[in-house]
Amino acid sequence: MSQLTLEQIATQLESTNSRDRLLALVSLREIADEDAVPLIKKVLDDEILQVRSMAVFALGIKQTDECFAILTKLLETDPDYGIRADAAGALGYLKDGRALEPLSRAFYEDTEWLVRFSAAVSLGNLQDIRAKQVLLKALDSSETVVQQAAIAALGEIKAIDAVEAILKFASSEDWLIRQRLAEALGNLPSDQSLSALRFFAKDEHPQVRQAAIYSLQRLEMT
Fold first, then answer.
1. Within 13 Å and on the Cβ side, how many CA atoms surround 198?
2. How far apart are CA 159 and CA 139, in angstroms?
3. Count of CB atoms within 10 A of residue 142's CB?
4. What top-level class would CATH report for the domain 1-64?
5. What is the pTM of this model?
6. Topology of 67-157 in CATH?
7. Which of 20, 26, 93, 204 lies in disulfide reach of 15, CB 3.0 to 4.6 Å?
C-alpha cells in the first residue's frame, strides 16, 4: 500500500468514520514527528475513546517540545481514567526527566489502579534513581499488577539498595511476580541477587527459570 501524504492523512482524520481516523493515526508512523504532532492534536478530543487513546499514545512516539505539556495536562485533568493511564504511559516513552514529578504525583493521588500502574511502569522507563521512594511505596499496593510494575521499575532504575525490599516477594505464589523479580535482579548486581537468582533458576515455572538464567548470565558478564 502506498504511503499517504500529509494532506490525505489530514483529510482522513476529518472523516465521520472512526475507523478512518484510526487508520490515519496509524499512517502517521511514517511521518516526521514535527509534521505528525499537529495532526495528532486534531483528534485528542475525539468522541470515540479508542481514537483518543491512540492519539495520546502517539504523542509518546512522535515527540516534539509540546508533547510533554500536553501529556502532563491530560494526566492531571482528563476525566477518563483510561486516558490518564495512556498519558502516563506516553510520558514514559518521552524519557524526559521532568516527568518524574507528574508521574509521582499521579501515583500518590490518582484513585484508579490503572493510572498508578502506568505511572509506575513509566517511572521505570525514565531510568531515574529519584523514583526509588515512589516505587518502594508501590510495592505496598493491594494490586498485584502494580507490585509487578514496581519490582520491574526498581530494576530499570538500578536501585541496588532496594534488593532486600523486593526479595520479600521471592516466595510469592504469583509466578509473574517471581518472573519480574528474576528479571529485575539481573539489573541489580549483589550477592543477594546472585543467591536469589540461583534459587529462581530451579523454580517450578519455566518462565521464571528462564528469566533467572538470563539474569544470572548478565550478572556474570559484569
1. 6
2. 14
3. 7
4. mainly alpha
5. 0.92
6. Leucine-rich Repeat Variant (1.25.10)
7. 20
pLDDT in tens, 69-101: 999 999 999 999 999 999 999 999 999 999 999
Cell output for 100 = 518524574
Q: How is residue 130 written as a grid cell?
A: 529519584
**CB under 8 Å to 165, separation ≥6 — which residues?**
136, 139, 154
d(CA 19, CA 9): 13
List alpha helices for 49-190, DSSP H. 49-61, 67-77, 81-94, 100-109, 113-126, 132-138, 144-156, 163-166, 175-185
3-state SS assignment for residue 172: coil
Count of helix runs (H) and strand runs (E) in the chain: 14, 0
Return d(Cα 22, Cα 132) in angstroms, integer. 37
CA dihedral 151, 152, 158, 161 (to 10 degrees): 10
Residue indicated by cell numbers 475525539: 46
